[in-house]
Amino acid sequence: MAAALRCATLPEYAASSFMPTQYHSPRTTQRLQSHLARINAQLNTNVTVNTNHTPSPFTEVGKLHKFSLFTTIAQSLPSSPSNKERESEHDIALRLPQLHQMLQLLRKKQGSNKEKRGGGGPGNVYLVGTGPGDPELVTLKALRVIHAADLVLYDRLVSTDILDMVHSGATLLYVGKAAGYHSRTQDEIHQLLLSFAQAGATVVRLKGGDPLVFGRGGEEMDFLHQQGIEVKVVPGITAASGIAAELGIPLTHRGVANSVRFLTGHSRKGGTDPQFVAKHAADPESTIVIYMGLATLPALADKLILCGLSPETPAAAVEHGTTSQQRMVFAKLQNLPDEVIDAHLVSPTLIIIGKVVALSSYWPTNSSTGKQEKNSCALEVYEAA
């Protein structure tokens, strides 16, 4: 494959400072228009949406515009009474009238089911991993659960191709996060999961990769367990495994790497400094995979070198791995931060560091011999075929 360099396509942003423009697949656009038509009829409010955007396999910033419209509609409604016991319900109602209506219908159905033997109990919450981006990497179990959902809460890195697998009767809600912007706080996500599960709904929480690998799935599971809600986890292929397979990089390899370590490039406020973690991960016989490390890559690379890794250690940075938007940069560890900047890679980007990277067929070769140059410092940026 010939090397090619181009700037990554950055998400467009709306003129309004409220939130970004989105991209919709045809089915998602149709579903959005249907939801808005139903809400308009109920509230006698005319709202139009410009859906003339280029479809993209990645939601990136999610369908935030859809829910900003719900918020706009809700602003014309009278204020809800202040009642601490119903605070979370009213919070949902003010932001998302459609969800409030759905919640009331579920509770009404649940109440009628209580008269029947075994009916009226709480619903289930499924934490479902959707893999690194390629919809063909979603598991059969994940598909079965998605098809049974009443409500789907999905993150930033869940592709529209995967969202199109959700049946038309389910309600979709974007709750993703990006650096500097959270569509919902984690506490709000907890309350959404709890409210609908208590009302008897089948709630599916879609997460990119695996829900228990840097996905805060453990926090959501712990919260719901404390509230007496059953939680089932459907594992997904984590980005490290999916992208390594795509690039032909064995994360472990006899005689080359006897362990693999997953690191996060940033920590919660007041948490452990990623550079402290890097200090203890600088093992030349190990493979290091860094999630969410684009912003902190220069400092992390310096720390790894300072703590013992060779500056010439092979490394790769992969943007939108396993999707049609995939781009890859291969370079020595000491050169990788600058090369990533020059290539304009954007989030989500996974970073793989270790001698096993040179085993990939994408690692730069010596043009005269055709052999891989494990210490080559040449920049190679590849686009997905």
From TrEMBL:
<dbReference type="InterPro" id="IPR014776">
    <property type="entry name" value="4pyrrole_Mease_sub2"/>
</dbReference>
<keyword id="KW-0949">S-adenosyl-L-methionine</keyword>
<dbReference type="InterPro" id="IPR000878">
    <property type="entry name" value="4pyrrol_Mease"/>
</dbReference>
<keyword id="KW-0489">Methyltransferase</keyword>
<dbReference type="GO" id="GO:0019354">
    <property type="term" value="P:siroheme biosynthetic process"/>
</dbReference>
<protein>
    <recommendedName>
        <fullName>uroporphyrinogen-III C-methyltransferase</fullName>
        <ecNumber>2.1.1.107</ecNumber>
    </recommendedName>
</protein>
<dbReference type="InterPro" id="IPR003043">
    <property type="entry name" value="Uropor_MeTrfase_CS"/>
</dbReference>
<dbReference type="GO" id="GO:0032259">
    <property type="term" value="P:methylation"/>
</dbReference>
<dbReference type="InterPro" id="IPR014777">
    <property type="entry name" value="4pyrrole_Mease_sub1"/>
</dbReference>
<feature type="domain" description="Tetrapyrrole methylase">
    <location>
        <begin position="125"/>
        <end position="336"/>
    </location>
</feature>
<comment type="similarity">
    <text>Belongs to the precorrin methyltransferase family.</text>
</comment>
<dbReference type="InterPro" id="IPR006366">
    <property type="entry name" value="CobA/CysG_C"/>
</dbReference>
<dbReference type="GO" id="GO:0004851">
    <property type="term" value="F:uroporphyrin-III C-methyltransferase activity"/>
</dbReference>
<dbReference type="InterPro" id="IPR035996">
    <property type="entry name" value="4pyrrol_Methylase_sf"/>
</dbReference>
<dbReference type="InterPro" id="IPR050161">
    <property type="entry name" value="Siro_Cobalamin_biosynth"/>
</dbReference>
<keyword id="KW-0808">Transferase</keyword>
<dbReference type="Pfam" id="PF00590">
    <property type="entry name" value="TP_methylase"/>
</dbReference>
<keyword id="KW-0627">Porphyrin biosynthesis</keyword>
